[in-house]
Write a structure and sequence with these properties.
The complex is a heterodimer.
Chain A: H1 2-9, H2 16-32, H3 39-64, H4 72-88, H5 93-118, H6 122-141, H7 152-159, E1 161-162, E2 165-166, H8 167-185, H9 187-197, H10 199-204, H11 209-235, H12 246-256, H13 268-287, H14 294-315
Chain B: E1 3-14, E2 17-28, E3 32-36, H1 43-50, E4 61-64, E5 67-69, H2 74-79, E6 82-85, H3 97-101, H4 116-130, H5 145-158, E7 163-167, H6 175-190, E8 194-198, H7 202-208, E9 211-216, E10 219-225, H8 231-239, E11 258-267, E12 280-285, E13 289-293, H9 300-307, E14 313-319, E15 322-323, H10 329-334, E16 337-340, H11 344-348, H12 355-360, E17 368-369, E18 372-373, H13 375-389, H14 405-417, E19 423-427, H15 435-450, E20 454-458, H16 462-468, E21 471-476, E22 479-485, H17 491-499
Parallel strand pairs in B: 3-8, 3-9, 6-7, 7-8, 13-20, 13-21, 16-19, 19-20
Antiparallel strand pairs in B: 1-2, 1-4, 4-5, 9-10, 11-12, 11-14, 14-15, 17-18, 21-22
Helix pairs in contact in B: 4-5, 8-17, 14-15
The chains are: A mainly alpha, B alpha/beta.
Protein name (chain B): Sugar ABC transporter ATP-binding protein
GO molecular function (chain B): ATP binding
Pfam families (chain B): ABC_tran
Chain lengths: 320, 500
């Protein structure tokens, strides 16, 4: 009884809608193909969406403060490239990874200071750094992928397994757990929600809202840089176009997961499940031999349906 | 003279409140008719009925030029010749003057494009008629507040309005701008337009009015020509009533120890608009309840925002004898201040958050070890305050969005009371809440003073100020215009300092 009761409580969770959608979509795909619901396929799918999901963790925190970070794809791509450059120049793998993450830190500080110190709208600030990042990547690579020598231990990050689970998925799970705890159990998390919920009220209550905003942009870029390092470790090739356009998929994941672009509402778990749903659709399209060009259209439809349902549910006065 | 608009036996009931109770009002063409009364007397409701924003209860009658009408909506009111100029300006700052005047009824060329030449010429003609020199092609955002108000008047005239209602039009104007506006209103009246002028400023009322109607508690108290009115009589008509028995006895807990002293507090202005607060000096004693009174636009809230670090200022503030540098709300909070803001919905609460989360936002670190919130401790403390303040909520997890105004206000008070500031500023603590909740809020403030907290109460509700303050400071046009001890503070003396 108690278990049943607790299960029923789950439907009050914000993530409930998207979780149900994920399960229904999985069942739907399984009706048409026996290859979907296998351990190896599911692990492959998870590895495929893990990078988007990792980046969506940072993005959802930014969105909860009422902001947006368009530069995540550039931070990811440039971080991978700088890591590759370090290997190329003969630095140790630790130095290379640190340099990659350092790129993220620099992106985040730039975004955060443009937004808090100068007062640029987040959309504009991060649009600018997005372009700068892309430009830098083409300037550095001249459009040619970089494939330096790397030690085997480094490729474990992107290619390895823990039991049956790919390492990027393990990293995703750990980050999801850590940031869920931060957002729901710590003072910082509470301040993030308060800043997005009502910035004036938060500031007048003593919340240092500018500091909170700076922190979420730094986290978002650094997490994206980590995704970039993992991507490089997986392919061992730094592509000039790596990460391009991924910001849209990452924002979509957060929105499908229930985050409100007006701020104050959203969750890390929701965003990660949102990314999983997008990954699942991509996989389904391939398995069912649907024209792959249709994938984007289907994802777009899912975004609209998911967010519309969420809006309608809130209008009906249900608990958000 | 035949009245243009007659309102006979108009009542309006809101859930739980009778805002208007058989109000009669006759407005003539060509006269300036001042509507006076305290906040909450029913002036706004009456205006909203005149302009079709609200419908009166059945039973009353409205006649325009002798014909009974039902004013359906603001567009209908305008077609009847009734326009209103609201206190908060309804102009679009990034359009030109002419574009504003002709907004949504732009003159068109045969091609369907806007006829700019005609629009600018017509605007220039209307402005000329008003006797003001404003370029029709200037961006409205570049104009002063006073000029923007004149543009609204120009718009009203270009509708061929026969009655123009002005809701405290001078509240945020400089002295010079205000006198231009008054001159303009007299001129319009001379041309046969009826003007309804809402104002709290005595000087102005006597300068401009032909007749004055006083509203009090939703009733018409008196209408008479201004020649038969005196300042004393007007003030008495506006405020005369028994002090509410609900509020019990006043006990002072004020000590002689000066807790905070403010010297030469002056606003650092970015734009030259609104009231300019300057040279504010006062002391606050430990355990004292200090009232701040003033009319709308006198600068009360601005003073408090400066003290709390959310508005740029110069001058010295010292607390416990030590100079305090306060340049942000978090600085102020570190120095032991708390601020219950005037507008609880937009500045006091995060509406989408629960009672618990709003409650603890001011003092979350009390429940934290490292950075982790101990939710059990937090919930327990919140539950204590819910009980102590009688906040009606099903649980601490309820979103404050779903609470009534009075209960929301108690949540704001709770979040500051729990922080235990030395000095608590409360701005309009009982606006928009019912009389029972109001008495409870007053009791709570008294209790906090008894525990040694110093409290600054800002209110435009004069009986409230008189009921709970140990001392009253009166602001007028950005400066202190009077300081009254509890013994000397009466409705008349305070009102006189605020208006005289």
């Amino acid at each position: 009884m108690r278990v049943l009761h607790q299960l029923l409580q789950l439907r009050h969770m914000r993530e409930f809608n998207v979780l149900i959608a994920l399960i229904l979509m999985g069942l739907l795909i399984s009706l048409f193909t026996p290859y979907f619901l296998t351990v190896s396929n599911l692990m492959g799918v998870s590895r495929a969406f893990s990078l988007t999901a990792i980046m969506s963790i940072g993005m959802v925190m930014v969105i909860i403060t009422g902001g947006i970070d368009l530069s995540v794809g550039s931070a990811m791509g440039l971080a991978g490239l700088i890591t590759a450059l370090c290997f190329d120049a003969g630095y140790s793998q630790y130095a290379a990874v640190a340099a990659g993450l350092g790129v993220g830190l620099a992106f985040g500080l730039t975004n955060g200071l443009l937004i808090t110190a100068i007062g640029l709208p987040p959309f504009i600030a991060t649009l600018g750094t997005l372009s700068i990042g892309r430009g830098l990547m083409y300037m550095i690579t001249h459009g040619v992928p970089l494939t330096p020598e790397t030690p085997d231990s480094f490729s474990f990050l992107g290619q390895g397994y823990v039991g049956p689970v790919p390492v990027p998925v393990v990293i995703l799970l750990v980050l999801t757990l850590i940031f869920t705890v931060i957002m729901t159990r710590t003072r910082f998390g509470r301040h993030v929600y308060a800043t997005g919920g009502n910035e004036n009220a938060a500031r007048l209550s003593g919340v240092k809202v500018q500091r909170v905003k700076l922190a979420v942009y730094v986290l978002s870029s650094t997490i994206s840089a980590l995704a970039g390092v993992i991507a490089f470790s997986r392919y061992l090739s730094a592509e000039p176009a790596s990460g391009f356009g991924s910001e849209l998929e990452v924002i979509a994941a957060a929105a499908i997961g229930g985050a409100s672009l007006a701020g104050g509402i959203g969750s890390v778990l929701g965003a990660v499940i949102g990314a999983a749903l997008i990954g699942e659709i991509a996989n389904g399209v391939v398995l069912l031999n649907i024209n792959t060009y249709a994938q984007q259209a289907i994802t777009g439809g899912v975004i609209l349906i998911a967010v519309s349902l969420d809006v309608l549910r809130n209008r009906m006065g249900g608990r958000g | 003279m035949k009245p243009f608009l007659e309102m006979i036996g108009i009542s309006k009931t809101f859930p739980g409140v009778k805002a208007l109770d058989h109000v009669d009002l006759h407005l003539n063409s060509g006269e300036v008719h001042v509507l006076a009364g305290e906040n909450g007397a029913g002036k706004s409701t009456l205006m909203k009925i005149m302009t079709g924003v609200l419908r009166a209860d059945p039973g009353g009658e409205i006649r325009v030029e002798g014909e009974p009408v039902v004013i359906k909506n603001p567009v209908h009111a305008r077609s009847l010749g009734i326009s209103i100029i609201y206190q908060e300006l309804a102009v679009v700052n990034n359009l030109t003057v002419a574009e504003n005047v002709f907004l949504a009824r732009e003159p068109l060329l045969p091609t369907g494009l806007i006829d700019r030449t005609k629009m600018n010429a017509d605007t220039r003609a209307v402005l000329h008629e008003l006797g003001v020199e404003i370029d029709p092609e200037a961006m409205v955002g570049t104009l002063s507040i006073g000029q923007r108000q004149l543009i609204e008047i120009a718009r009203a005239i270009s509708y061929n309005s026969k009655l123009i209602i002005m809701d405290e039009p001078t509240a945020s104007l400089s002295h010079h701008e205000a006198s231009t506006l008054l001159r303009m209103s007299r001129k319009l009246a001379a041309q046969g337009v009826g003007i309804v002028f809402i104002s709290h400023k005595l000087e102005e009322i006597f300068e401009i009015a032909d007749r004055v109607t006083v509203l009090r508690d939703g009733r018409t108290v008196d209408t008479r020509p201004v020649s038969e009115m005196t300042s004393d009589l007007l003030v008495r008509l506006m405020v005369d009533r028994e002090l509410d028995q609900l509020f019990g006895h006043h006990i002072s807990h004020a000590t002689d120890e000066v807790l905070m002293s403010v010297r030469n507090l002056t606003e650092k202005r970015v734009k030259d608009e609104g009231v300019f607060v300057r040279d504010v000096d006062f002391d606050l004693r430990r355990g004292e309840v200090l009232g701040f009174f003033g009319l709308v636009g006198a600068g009360r809230t601005e003073v408090m925002e400066m003290i709390f670090g959310s508005r740029p200022h110069s001058g010295e503030i010292s607390i416990n004898g030590k100079p305090a540098r306060i340049s942000s709300p978090s600085d102020a909070i570190e120095h032991g201040l708390g601020f219950v803001t005037e507008d609880r919905q937009s500045r006091g609460l995060v509406l989408g958050m629960s009672v618990r989360e709003n409650f603890s936002l001011t003092h979350l670190s009390d429940y934290c070890s490292l950075d982790f919130v101990n939710r059990r401790k937090e919930t327990a403390a919140c539950a204590d305050y819910i009980r102590a303040l009688g906040i009606k909520t099903p649980s601490p997890e309820q979103k404050v969005l779903n609470l009534s105004g009075g209960n929301q206000q108690k949540v704001v008070l709770a979040k500051w009371a729990a922080r235990r500031p030395q000095i608590l500023i409360v701005d309009e603590p009982t606006r928009g809440i019912d009389i029972g909740a109001k008495a409870e809020v007053h009791t709570l403030l008294g209790k906090m003073a008894e525990e040694g907290m110093s409290i600054i109460v800002v209110s435009s509700d004069l009986p409230e100020i008189l009921a709970i303050s140990d001392r009253v400071i009166v602001l007028k046009e950005g400066k202190i215009s009077g300081e009254l001890t509890r013994e000397n503070a009466t409705q008349e003396s305070v009102m006189l300092a605020a208006t005289g």
